[in-house]
Amino acid sequence: MDMHYLTVILLGIVEGLTEFLPVSSTGHLILASELLGYDASVWAMFNVMIQLGAILAVVVLYWRTFWAVAMGLLRLDPVSIRFVRNLLVAFIPAVVIGLALHDYIDTLLGSPRVVACALVVGGIAILVIERLIKEQRFHGIADIPLVRVIGIGFIQCLAMVPGVSRSGATIMGALALGVERRTAAEFSFFLAIPTMLGASTLELLKKGDQLTSAQVGWDSIALGFVVSFIVALLVIKWFVGLVSRHGFAPFAWYRIIAGIGALVWLTLR
């Protein structure tokens, strides 16, 4: 197979594997560009578009939840209204801070060392939070109080530093604020939909002329989208089952080992 399409498939797999795990999909894509030696700027918009494949996986897997919420909204059901309210409120900080710091975030995205350091620090943070968490009072997204939802929304913004992980920040923030593990993970999945759609729309408005290039055409974007979608479908179901039984420590140790390994490699290469 042509090396170009092997790269497309590999990036689709990396995106699908890491988008919803607390390990940072953006960070892994940045490190992949360094490891494989390709021009990351050429593939930047490709990476944005294949994220939508991973987001579609959430919609497909949880379509019954979304349908029930939609029907509940028509009936003015209080639980459905709180569900939607919580997602929208948690999304607002990312909109405000993302628009304000967009150019600075773009600068950080060019630094694999920032990614490696963030992987290590984030891994340590997960271990600390897992050890300290005692009380988990909220067992449904609609049950999370508004003030805690706002807190989760601001904590999600830490993921604007590449390597922190949007899902990791959201999940750990929710756990620290008293949300049960499975609910924290699912809240992260659902919050990814408006957050990633918003981030992708912003990138398209700013850099839409770079959507395709001589190196990365629509065929590559379509293939990467499909690969990301399929892999994310498999990962989400596995992830929810794993964290319900074993917590998030395995991902913390992976982050620490991967981050240290990346720092050593970046120093010695």
Automatic annotation (TrEMBL):
Q: Short name of one Pfam family for this protein?
A: BacA
Q: How does it sit in the membrane?
A: Multi-pass membrane protein
Superkingdom to which the source organism belongs: Bacteria
Where is it mainly found? membrane
Q: What class of enzyme is it?
A: hydrolase
| InterPro entries recorded | UppP
- Some GO term, biological process aspect, for this entry: which one? peptidoglycan biosynthetic process
Mark the transmembrane ranges.
42-63, 83-101, 113-133, 145-164, 184-205, 217-240, 252-268
Q: Where in the cell is it found?
A: Cell membrane
The reaction(s) annotated as catalysed by this protein in its Swiss-Prot or TrEMBL entry are:
di-trans,octa-cis-undecaprenyl diphosphate + H2O = di-trans,octa-cis-undecaprenyl phosphate + phosphate + H(+)
Q: Which UniProt keywords apply?
A: Antibiotic resistance, Cell membrane, Cell shape, Cell wall biogenesis/degradation, Hydrolase, Membrane, Peptidoglycan synthesis, Transmembrane, Transmembrane helix
**Which Gene Ontology cellular component terms are annotated?**
plasma membrane
**From which residue to which does the signal peptide run?**
none
The EC designation for this entry is 3.6.1.27
| Molecular function terms, GO-annotated | undecaprenyl-diphosphatase activity
What miscellaneous comment appears in this entry? Bacitracin is thought to be involved in the inhibition of peptidoglycan synthesis by sequestering undecaprenyl diphosphate, thereby reducing the pool of lipid carrier available.
- Entry function: Catalyzes the dephosphorylation of undecaprenyl diphosphate (UPP). Confers resistance to bacitracin.
Q: Which family does it belong to?
A: Belongs to the UppP family.
Instruction: Please name the PANTHER family in this protein's record.
Output: UNDECAPRENYL-DIPHOSPHATASE
Question: What is the designated name of this protein?
Answer: Undecaprenyl-diphosphatase
Biological source species: Sphingobium scionense
UniProt lists the gene as uppP
